[in-house]
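Go through this:
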Amino acid sequence: MKTYSRKDERTKTMQAFYQVFLNIENKDEFDATDVINSIYGVSDINDVPKFSKAIYAFGLEHIEELEKAISDHLVNWTFSRLDDVAKAILIAGAAEGNYVKLAPRKVVINEWVDLAKNYLKVNDHKFINAVLDKVIPDYQYQA
């Protein structure tokens, strides 16, 4: 099995969520496991790296609650109006920071903000930073 850095796993997880949001938007039927398997180019979910799989699973399992938490911090905006890439970054980042917690809170936010810098318009990363800062509670990271 290929080894991925955490940054690469976050990127692939964001891509999987992006595909999920595209399927939802287009009202296409899809299997969430097939989506992430396709992103990693594998046929068995057990071949998806555990870190990525955890973020993806928790994000999907708690997607409605995460969308609500994010929506509560959007001023004059709704979650459904966000760009699908922004939705994917916010859901994945919120899932990692609220459920996975395998890195310090600051690192989690910074990693997802860095992805926003690469995939969103100029300065949209500031929006991602502000929302994740409000959505991800303080927690004690245990190395």
Remarks:
- The chain has a mean pLDDT of 95.
- DSSP finds seven helices and no strands in the chain.
- Residues 6-25 form the longest helix (20 residues).
- Residues 13 and 56 are 6 Å apart (CA to CA).
